[in-house]
Amino acid sequence: MGYQQNVELFRNDTKERDLTSDETYSYNPVVHKYDPLVELRPGDCLKTKCVFRSTSKKTTTTFGAGTNDEMCFAIFTYFPAENMHYYCVTWDEVDMLLFDNGVIYGCDYRMLKNESHPERQRLITKVLDNCDPYGGCRTECPAAVAEVRGHPCFSGRLPDYTVSLLSRNPSLEVAKFLAALQSCDCSAAEPPVSPSNGGHSKSITGEVITLMCILGSRFV
Prior knowledge:
- The chain is α+β, with helices and mostly antiparallel strands.
- It has two domains: 2-99 and 207-219, no CATH class; 103-181, no CATH class.
- 20% of the residues lie in helices and 22% in strands.
- The strands form four sheets. Strands 2-1-4-9 form a four-stranded antiparallel sheet, with no helix packed on it. The chain has a two-stranded antiparallel ribbon with strand order 3-10.
- Helix 2 (118-128) crosses helix 5 (172-181).
- It starts with a strand and ends with a strand.
């Protein structure tokens, strides 16, 4: 799905240079070599942008590590090795390095993955008892949704990540929960028109941008 990728080096909020610039990206990655070596200083940031095209897909695309998922990785070798994490991954504004035993920003994702956990069941039941997963906004639904969206897993930076996580191979209960959770959301966007109905289709593209900031001097 990915067809463009580039990595930029920023210093003091100013772009220094491109480290990669693959305008036509292939899954057989191009190896970039630097001569002279590139010095990364404390406070420098690497900004990675991946562009996707999913027009050939007939199912929803979610984040993941597969070639058919929405994933954006840039891999570098560097020295010296100290003071660096083994990997650096972000999901939108969610820094995966902040996870501590499954907990981030006050949300325990171990709870969400445990189908029998009382807190997970409370959140799902609250929405399904008050909202319609099949469409239409029930009068009592907004208050129930507001309560659930006050939970750490559904507030701040995490709502989209939580929905994406729950959307991967969901059970019927979770699918209904996610639909009901959005049953009162309004959108002015018109649904796409199928070419088979005499309309036209639109190219669907998306971008993922990740940012890594350097703690100590090193070279790539």
